[in-house]
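Problem 12. The chain below contains 428 residues. Write out its predicted structure in token notation.
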Amino acid sequence: MRSSSCDRRAVFSWCLYDFANSPFTTLVVTFIYATYFIKAFAADENMGTVLWSRGVTITALASAMLSPFLGAIADRGGFRKAFLFFFTAVAAGGSAMLYTIMPGRTSAALFWFVTANIAFEMGEVFYNAFLPDIAPPEKIGRISGYGWAMGYMGGLMALLIAFAGFVQPSVPWFGFSKELGENIRATNLLVAVWYALFCIPIFLWVKEDRSRACSGGEKILASSVKQLIETFHEIRRYRQIVRLLAARLFYNDGLITIFAFSGIYAKGTFHFADSELLILAICLNIAAGLGAYAMGFWDDRLGGKRTVLISLAGLTLAVIFAVAAQGKAMLWIGGLLAGIFSGPNQSASRSLMGRFVPTDKENEFFGFFAFSGKATAFLGPFLFGVLTQTFASQRAGVAAIIVFFIIGACLLAKVDEAEGLRCAGRSA
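Solution.
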């Protein structure tokens, strides 16, 4: 049921879930465990990179395929909170299991990483689907921005704690040893505890509307399949959602490529030291959080479409600075611009989707939203690698990102936000 007023406790609890799960992507997927895996679980770093990329690819494909179907089941059965709890528990538990896997047990490490990562992505589907319910129409942009901002804050805080307590000190906290990378593996326990602790409020204070739920297992499954079939048959009715998702396929690929290769570009082309990369990561997270928070208000005033277009213009400018940079100072400008506009891009995309989804298909359509973020996620990194190899320059690979943003912006320009609101039965 759509909120007509803002329940502040529910909003805070919802935002806190972003704070809870962001350390998983920051510590496990990106900065700490990923680099440890590449060095400790394969014969060399190149093979470790290949194995890790395969794990990420499996995650993307599995979550893209599962998201719409499980979303439909959650709609018909009233299982949104139950699914969110299940996938949260699996993601946190999988993170904890990574601590127990010793170097050399490559298959076991990949199994638990992929399991936890799929659960994380699936949890995002049902978490995002709560946004239209807890946010009044006139505040959906800023509330989405609050969530993204708290997510960046949570990831940054966990990263600093991990480095201060486990990675950097000669004697890690809580008696962990540096032998066999135990101190690095222990950061996964930090992720698991953080996840489990800060997710509690969403299950206590965010309510789920189950008034449209079916009863009976067979009836729910049949109704879910029927709902998916109806959605495809009525696709013209949801053409603004289709246009949004088509645009996001491209501009999100550009964003994914920035996240995946910004550190590699800074180190490979500009010879950043590890300490400089850490400072860059911290600054980017702060800039992205502030951008998501501030532009959430623009989102409510200007609309989600305009906010995403503004963010794409800012991201394009950031990439131009990065490609043209002849020194670290200009790269820093591009990096900070990318941080400022990446948060609003993600936040406003989510809020725009929240404005467009029908009230009886929120989980299903946020499943399609997840699909649009993963289905072609390999294209940007693939093109980056091909152009870097062809021109023997990382600058060529970075320049390709501009193409994704321009195509995404052109497709998004065709979205009629007013029609999308009318079709969803929501107020402007």
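Discussion. The first helix runs from residue 8 to 31. Students who got a different answer should revisit the alignment rule from Section 12.3.
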